[in-house]
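Running log. JK asked me to keep both predictions on one page so they can be read side by side. First protein, sequence followed by its tokens:
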Amino acid sequence: MSDLAPKRPHHRAVDRIAAILETVATEPQGLGLTQLALRLDAPVSSIQKLVNGLVAVGYLDETDHRFTLGAAPYLLSLRAGRVPARVVRHADLVALSREHRCSAVLAVRLGDASVYVDWAGTDDPFNYLTVRQLRTPLPETAVGRVLLAHLPERERHEVVSAHVGGEAEAALGLLAELAEIREDGFSLGDSGPMLRGIAAVAAPVWAEGVVVGAVSLAGRREGGGERLPELAEVLVSAVREWAGRAVER
């Protein structure tokens, strides 16, 4: 579609820095420089200066030659009001999961992908994705489509255009679905190709007028799909309650 903006190009150095931060963030005990290089399949010499620079500005901490995530990324998110944990507590997800016998997940957007950052339930696929914090293209999960639906128009069009590969009919269909999500206040249906056979409902997490994340309730389609309208009402009500609670703090 000619009116959809092209996808923004990646930058090699930025991609490498992002990979360093994301890799270190998954290791609470930290990683040595050689370990980090092995994880990234990169020469030590190619990441040493980047790591030193990240330590200098607080994005990484170094103790006994091991690197852990610094306070700077959290501080930036906190200042921007984009820390979903300020709105959604782990106990909230646990309560929803137990009461409605399904998985409850919290996701955030990273670029053109969504990542699960917290989870409660008994479904192994969700547990795997949460522990690994795998990036999933925004259109391919319920939470991702909610996050995509609330992006500014230009960014939304960029992601849609990149996802459909220039197919006008597919782009229009996806944009119509996203408009419906914004109007309804939730997404309802199949979770997506990452978790086939999973039915899900997802709703945005708001903080100070900005969508900072998305929460989903999901379970096996057999025996669970017919509950989606009920779960949508439950989830939207819960998210509103959490947002109000956060404002009162």
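And the second, directly underneath as requested:
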Amino acid sequence: MSATSVLPVLATLATLAGLLVLSGCDGPARGSGGGAGAVAGADRAHQGRPHARPVDPTRIPGVGERLRRRIPADSRQVVAVYGDGGDSADSTVVLYTRRGTAWERTRGWPAHNGKEGWTTDHHEGDGRSPVGVFTLTDAGGVLADPGTRLPYTRSAGFAAPRWWARSHWHDFDYVIAIDYNRVKGTPPNDPTRPEGGAAGGGIWLHLDHGSGTSACVGLSGVAMRYLLRTLDPDRHPVVVMGDRAHLG
């Protein structure tokens, strides 16, 4: 074989050797980072992102059949309040949006509920938030409307009393009424209690002061502004709220 005919063969062998070396370098890296652990990690990262769908996209995670049946059929926005425990003031709020038959996780935030936890039989002054499904129809606050589609009432009458702790003074800069024992279509601070005063009322989503509430749900200013700008009466928003045991 002449020198000129050997050269192409040698070039081909060198190329094959290079490919084998590259395969040897990439193989272990893929194996150590591409096995079951890596798949699980990627799945966890996906689930943590906004808009990630639950395992069964037709159901809202953590909400059992009893409460699920109470969500109106035409509702396409659900604010889920997941209480950490029956006697805990700590909770997590997640907004879900329904597209077709699937519920998509839109956004979530840490929150606080009643300082004594939760109850299925709320009474005035018990310090517990009521478990249940309630519509969200009206909003308001001390500050100007940030751009909500809900009917919004701005009034100094929402201001927290100045004899409250200073940390509570801005609680009601923004509020969204939870339709528990109130008349829909009225300002959140309307005092009418259809089921009587003993059943409590004036239960809102409002700004968080860093600890438990009387019965409301407290969220950050960022969360409240987002909800106010996102909740849409045409999508019939509701809140599903309770500690995780009662929700399930």
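Observation for JK regarding the second prediction: Residues 1-54 have pLDDT under 50 and may be disordered.
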